[in-house]
Predict the structure.
Amino acid sequence: MTTRYRVEYALKTHRRDQLIEWIKGLLAVPFVLHSQPTVIYQEHSEGLKRVAADTHQRYAEIMRDVENLINDHSKSHVARRRQHPLRLPLITPQFYITNEMTRLYLEDAFNYQDEQRFISRRRFVAPSFNDIRLILNSAQLLGLVRSSEVDLVTFDGDVTLYDDGACLTPANPVIPRILRLLEQGRKVGIVTAAGYEEAPKYYGRLYGLLDAVHDSKKLTPSQKEGIIVMGGESNFLFRFDQESESRLAYVSRKEWLLEEMRAWHDDDIKQLLDIAEDSLRACASNLGLPAAVLRKDRAVGVYPVNGVRIDRELLEETVLVVQNTVERSAVGSRLPFCAFNGGNDVFVDIGDKSWGVRVCQEYFGGIDPSKTLHIGDQFLSAGANDFKARLASTTAWIASPAETVELLDELEAAINK
Ligand code: IMP
Ligand code: MG
């Protein structure tokens, strides 16, 4: 039976970010009380400037209070085990903050984004989801550079580095930014769900970047080795190889598997994928998906035949059905997996990006989560695959490849400051 609770849960908890929604609600109050949309001002008038300054101050105060509350929450993390009541979960019981790795400088981030986006000058459009998502990103970058360092940046592929299903071509403006990270001695991981076992397939997707690293005269050989590709979320690792035509070399699992991953037995992997495949086939048939099933060694998915678009609702339904089905199985409680909506396909992968990011950290000698930034586009709590990276690193939530470029510029500016 579909209860009201389940519908609410699926619609609200999975489709919305509770922290962003909560902050949006807090900012809506001064927006309503101070932005005075019905007062007729000349757009250049002193009156309008005064209203904007007043609104800015109210927004900034709220962001400072939220910052203090989150800080308090993080500090009480240890106290939680001693049964101290926590203010944040009591005030906002529906969300939890996974990022206890660095401080979030929300007030400063708001001041920065307000200059970029004129949030407090707006009288008709309230602070939006995107405003707050970008403020949180800025706050995270400030936290990284002020209270820690950035030693490793991991990138999702589709939508983060290039458009969905496209390739990283030589003209992509992200390339000089990534080269710069490597020149500064930072490490870079591409942590993508795209799961191939052969290096040439990744070269086909990433050739613009890999050729640029290969051809670079500025990068030393050891800086070039600072880029790796982790495919299939956490299943196939490739290191940079200057001599190889595909610029990449496969790294065998025994060289990088984390201790816990050694318990992922082949028969469990097969059993989990069998359950997921049955469930995907049932969805394809019940929902009339114009899709074929693709079974791989470490993943199973449905993808559209002849490039037709599958309705978002059907993709989401499929993700939630298969996720529920696998979660309820015995093997699903032993083995980590990730079911997600890839935009026009649904995949179930063994492992998830938290493991992918951890492997990158270990590969580079044990980089701390507080010195790692994962940049991705999929951060809703269900049906999204970058979400799990929050367990292993700080994160930034972008909505397009252009935003990734802006974020890297913002990071560079924050580091230089
Ligand atoms: P990401 O955004 O870089 O994580 O890539 C996600 C996309 O990779 C999915 O939407 C799929 O279209 C594609 N893909 C190709 N192979 C796989 C696989 O084995 N597992 C999951 N996704 C895959
Ligand atoms: Mg993506």
